[in-house]
Amino acid sequence: MGLSERITSAEVYRILNPSLRPTVVRLRTDAGTVGLGDTGVSYGAGTEAMPPLLAELLRTAVLGRPLSARHEILLELTYGTFWAKRAGSLFAGAVSAIDQALHDAAARALGVPLHELLGGRVHTRLPVYANGWYFGQHSEEDRLTAARRVVADGHRALKTYPLVRQDEEQRLRHPSPARWDSALLRSAIDHVRRLRERVGDDVRLMVDLGGCVPRDHAPELLGALRDLGVEFAEEPFDPADESSLHWLPTPAPVPVATGERLTGLAAFDRVLRTGAVSIIQPDVCLAGGHGVFQSVAALARGHSIRVSPHNCSSGIGTAHTVQAAAAVPNLHSVETFPYLSAVPGYREILTDPLEPRIEAGLLTVPDRPGIGVDLDDTVASAFLVKRLKERHI
Ligand SMILES: [Mg+2]
Fold this sequence. Notes:
The chain is α/β, with parallel strands linked by helices. It folds into two domains: 2-111 and 374-389, Enolase-like, domain 1; 117-364, TIM Barrel (Alpha-Beta Barrel). The chain has helices at residues 50-61, 70-79, 89-110, 140-152, 182-199, 218-227, 242-247, 265-273, 290-302, 315-326, 377-380, and strands at 7-14, 23-29, 34-38, 125-130, 157-160, 165-166, 172-173, 204-208, 230-234, 256-258, 279-280, 306-307, 334-336, 362-364, 384-389. Strand 11 (279-280), helix 9 and strand 12 (306-307) form a beta-alpha-beta unit. Bound molecules: magnesium ion. Magnesium ion binds at residues 208, 234-235, 260. The site of magnesium ion has 4 residues, from loops.
């Protein structure tokens, strides 16, 4: 039937995995076509608030509408709900997931991979970097050994968090300003040095600073990361603090990346205009959906800035990220979590996740209809929290 298919039902799942707890949605049309979306807010506090928010937006703006109305629905969600303007991550995540699910369903209804609706594929294989390889490792030595395994598995790039501690539930805890001192600075530099020694000079290292470095220590830290051959330093400052980006020398000692917590095009525009950022990291699950993501990528291209999509939720989020990245000419790399499935207690909700298909640091873009992955109902049904139906059915 194509784009005239009407959305008749929706299911909301909250996946309770160790370390990540994503909320995802599956739409279903009157022709049986499905569409999957991921809200992106899968860590930190507040994730319990996502399913009811998502359900409210689905009920008020989506059920009963045809797939051809997907752009109108996004506009209604963006301009007709009050809180989507200057949205925080929860609201923007809910809107993004709906936009994703509508795009996925539309592409499946048309029988084309999603990237065909995003301008068309310009990459068939995407360079990825590995994150999450440290989950389940409780000491520095264990983490360094795990990093060696990542390289032995064929990965050519990986990310580390030298300022965090992992709590007993494997969550990453960034330091508060009250905990900051020069010993933390030293231990961060030492960690990256040990990691560099362990993985060798040919492996690309990304360093996430979690938005917590005070200005007086930033030059020393960024300079040390430059000397250790770090590919980019992510979020050196609080993501709301654009003044520190303006304050950074140009060019920064090491390429600076940011963007995972930004929502809406104007926020990205302000950060790109600081001149301090070399890599922008929109999250298609959080920034506002596929339209905002592609707009950010195009805006970045106008500033000669490359895109490394942030991606840290479910395999649905990864599948959308891959489709979006395939259409971005100025792509730097894609964030992936290939080792989550090895964490004890992890439940895979997809029948065909993309992460196991990474080979030598590259991921081939699926060309099946939509995002190219499907929910495994035998696993996902345990995480179903809401089922919504069009009212008159
Ligand atoms: Mg980050």
